[in-house]
Predict the structure.
Amino acid sequence: MNLRRDVFQAIADPTRRAILVLLATQTLTAGAIAANFGTARPTVSKHLQILTECELLAKEQAGREIYYRMNPKKMREIADFIEPFRKMWDERFNKLEDIMKASRKTEDDLGPY
């Protein structure tokens, strides 16, 4: 039975996010990844399994070693999903900034009380 994990649940965990950051620029084995964390290797292996199941990571066998790398296509899907929300909040913050600037200008124009 192949259960598909939710990508947002996967990246909710700080250790898994740290693994993604670690693999953003390099391909590493599970042992090399685990060496960066103060947890047992089986714990890191479970995180790698979750990230692989939701396709954020891809793994490649090279001899006896399995190398993990980030899947940029899946990361792009996440970014594309988040982009409209980022734009909406940017617009709202820009409007708030304009209101605050206008308020300061009005206060400056009134002078001291």
Summary: The chain has five helices and three strands.
